[in-house]
Amino acid sequence: MKLYTRTGDQGKTSVVGGRVSKNNARVVAYGTTDELNSFVGQCVTQLDDKLFLDIKAELTKIQHELFDCGGDLAMVKETEKLSYKTSLEMIEFLEERIDCYIEEAPTLERFILPGGSIPSATLHICRTVARRAEREVVQLVEQQAEYNPIVLTYLNRLSDYFFAAARVVNFRLNVGDIEYERSGLVFKNGKRKDQM
User: Fold this and answer.
1) Backbone angles phi, psi at 29, to 5 degrees
2) Helix, strand or coil for residue 90?
3) pLDDT for the residue 85
4) What positions does the domain Cobalamin adenosyltransferase-like occupy (predicted)?
């Protein structure tokens, strides 16, 4: 089997249901989920088994789910033979883990900067790439293209998961979060004041 096919040399690529330009909003969105998956994989390699076996398992699960998201985004139309894979159960799992990590990490009062430790910084990269993927899926919505709406919610929740996990990673490593030095008190009991 050859790795290269030459079929994309003129700027077109295949999606489930036809061929489109490589800068098509659908391709851009699933390309960013692929980029995100790579950063998640990098983070898995940075985490020690003794302290982070739970988070490593979750991140591996998320890698499979991001592949599902990419597959759903590559599907021009759901059919009887091809159905969407991203599910509400995936979102519920993320929410449960976010709630646990908020309880584990120190109370958040101010905005923080990405960093502290290498794996925490990588999780913040994951968070921002997830936000970009979310914005790109919104472009599909605005074009009234068919898509799995659960993917948009999943990416939104996933960025919150990465934020919560990044803080727990620093906490378990006994590394403090880096507070944004010009931040006032923005959070109360770990929640933003404008959300209370």
Assistant:
1) -65, -45
2) helix
3) 95
4) 3-169
Provide DSSP, 86-98. --HHHHHHHHHHH
φ, ψ for residue 86, nearest 5 deg: -70, 130
Give CA angle at 39 (30, 44), nearest 5°.
130
Distance (Å, rounded) from C-alpha 165 to C-alpha 22?
33
120 contacts 59 by C-beta, under 8 angstroms? no
Residue 20's H or E segment, with its range, is strand 18-21
Asked if pLDDT for residue 151 goes beyond 90, the answer is yes
CA distance 97 to 59: 11
What CA–CA distance (Å, rounded) separates 128 from 139?
A: 17
Scan for tokens 């499979």, then name that residue.
Answer: 64
- Domain locations in the chain as residue ranges: 13-76+84-195
β-bridge mates for residue 96, sequence order: none
pLDDT band at 79 (very low <50, low <70, confident <90, very high): low
Token pair 């794996």 is at which residue? Answer: 119
Q: How many CB atoms lie within 10 A of CB 58?
A: 18
What percentage of residues in the chain have a pLDDT greater than 70?
82
For the domain covering 13-76+84-195, report its CATH number.
1.20.1200.10
Single-letter amino acid, residue 184: G
Alpha-carbon distance of 13 to 6, in angstroms, equals: 10
